[in-house]
Write a structure and sequence with these properties.
Blueprint (H helix, E strand, L loop, with lengths): L1 H7 L1 H10 L4 E3 L9 H10 L2 E3 L1 E2 L5 H10 L4 E4 L14 H11 L5 E4 L5 H8 L4 E3 L2 H5 L12 H22 L2
Parallel strand pairs: 1-2, 3-4, 4-5, 5-6
Helix pairs in contact: 2-3, 6-8
């Protein structure tokens, strides 16, 4: 939540984040038009700034995001809450194409990938596949509400990461 960083202090956060080894930050609730202070601080501290685009982003918005992002543009391939999906439609590929046409060098897709097959499909056209929920869920019990034993969770996390990476790498030959 950008508000937390804003109240902490943008320059202070950028300095502390860099000193802690941070490389960049996804800011889903900050648009480039309102990010002047963050753009300056991230430049001073060599941090990537990842802004989001969505399927309903106009061409002008894609251009503004592409010009101001550093590292990659996060293509949130659908509107609403993120999370695992049982199926993935074709519209994210069009969003990646439109974002590249607007000037983005790297476009990574966040779409709820949870299987190697889904990762392969997205990895075939995107520069990167953003996975969150599928990895978090490896650390939780079957109810999804309680953490599993640390060793079990780490083992499951490693297995899921390996499965997803293999699918993505196989898609790229």
């Amino acid at each position: 939540n950008w508000n937390l960083i804003y109240h902490y202090g943008v320059e202070r956060f950028a300095r502390d984040f860099e000193n802690a080894g941070g490389a960049g930050l996804i800011t889903p609730d900050l648009i480039p038009d309102e990010a002047g202070e963050w753009i300056e601080a991230s430049d001073r501290h060599g941090l990537d700034r990842i802004f989001l685009v969505s399927p309903d982003s106009a061409e002008g918005r894609l251009k503004v995001v592409s010009e101001n992002a550093r590292g990659f543009v996060y293509a949130a391939a659908r509107m609403g809450v993120t999370g695992e999906r049982s199926t993935i439609d074709a519209s994210p590929e069009e969003l990646v194409s439109r974002t590249r046409a607007a000037g983005a060098k790297n476009v990574c897709v966040g779409i709820g990938v949870s299987t190697a097959e889904q990762g392969a499909r997205v990895g075939a056209y995107a520069d990167g596949v953003i996975v969150g929920s599928a990895l978090v869920h490896t650390m939780l019990d079957e109810t999804g509400k309680k953490a599993v034993a640390e060793a079990d969770g780490l083992k499951a996390l490693a297995a899921k990461a390996e499965e997803l990476a293999e699918g993505i790498h196989n898609a790229r030959g």
